[in-house]
Amino acid sequence: MALYRQVVLGAFGQVADTLRALDHDAAALRAQDEALASAKEALRLVQINYEAGLSTYLEVLIADEQYHQAITHDLQATAVRYQDTVALYVALGGGWWSEGETTPPGSYSRAWRASGLP
User: Which of 26, 58, 85, 116 lies 20 to 30 Å from 18, alpha-carbon distance?
Assistant: First the structure.
């Protein structure tokens, strides 16, 4: 019975960890979205200033580079969010397997037999 309790507590801990990671990811994604919007607006303003003769082309290039870096960082934050979402599905006992299989590889039956429970 102690093994079962240890497995259940470990599973709850894994779910709690992934939920905390998802919460952190949501905050990071919001920050990246705000940074992306700011970089886009900065690029727009620099382009307007360039067309009015108030900025150099170098300033436009710098703003454009910063905008593209913000896009990259936003995509990276989104990817981390997706990875942690998958980790939550796995922690909750989900997963995926090939079509045609009725049970996932390494399914619960192996773990159940190893636990020694009836």
Answer: 116
Q: Assess contact for 74 and 83: CB atoms under 8 A.
A: no
Q: What letters, b where the CB count within 10 A reaches 16 and e where it falls short, cover 23-56? A: eebeebeeebeebbeebeebbeebeeebeeeebe
**Structural domain range at position 68:** 12-95+104-115
Classify residue 17 by burial, with Cβ atoms within 10 Å: 0-12, 13-18, 19+: middle
- At 92, the amino acid letter reads L
Whether residue 3 lies inside any domain: the answer is: no
pLDDT at 112 over 50: no
Count Cα atoms within 13 angstroms, Cβ side, for 25: 20
pLDDT bin (cut points 50, 70, 90) of residue 97 is low
Number of domains, the chain: 1
CA angle at 43 for the pair 52 and 46, rounded to the nearest 5°: 25
Query: Which alpha helices (H) appear in the chain, and where do they start and end?
Result: 2-51, 57-91, 108-115
